[in-house]
Amino acid sequence: MDFLLSAKRNDGNEQNQRNAIAISDLQIKSAELQRGHAELVQKIREQVYLAVFDYDDAAREFQIAQEVAKRNAARMQLLECRISLR
After folding, report:
1. Is the sign of the CA dihedral 29, 35, 38, 44 positive or negative?
2. Which superkingdom does the taxonomy of this entry point to (predicted)?
3. Is 24 exposed, middle or buried (0-12, 13-18, 19+ CB in 10 A)?
4. DSSP letter (8 states) at residue 77
5. How far apart are CA 21 and CA 16, in angstroms?
6. DSSP character at residue 73
7. Which of 1, 39, 66, 86 lies 20 to 30 angstroms, CA to CA, from 58?
8. How far apart are the first and last CA of the chain?
9. How far is Cα 74 from Cα 5, in angstroms, rounded to an integer?
10. CA dist 54 to 45, 59, 65, 66, 80, Å?
11. Alpha helices, DSSP H, located in 1-86
């Protein structure tokens, strides 16, 4: 009888140890996933910042190009006026 109780106790201890190991493994995997998630969030944030900067640069270049085109159109009008006055 003592043998059966001892065997049950050992089985219970072994099961508790397996459960503790499984829980530890899950905690480690959870921490790795959280770290990976944080890294991805940071990378995405950096990519968004870079995209916004690129957009701002493109918008600025477009505005400059528009102003140059307006200036050139005004020059053409002045040249046309000069030519027609001759």
Report:
1. negative
2. Bacteria
3. exposed
4. H
5. 9
6. H
7. 39
8. 126
9. 102
10. 14, 9, 16, 18, 39
11. 2-85
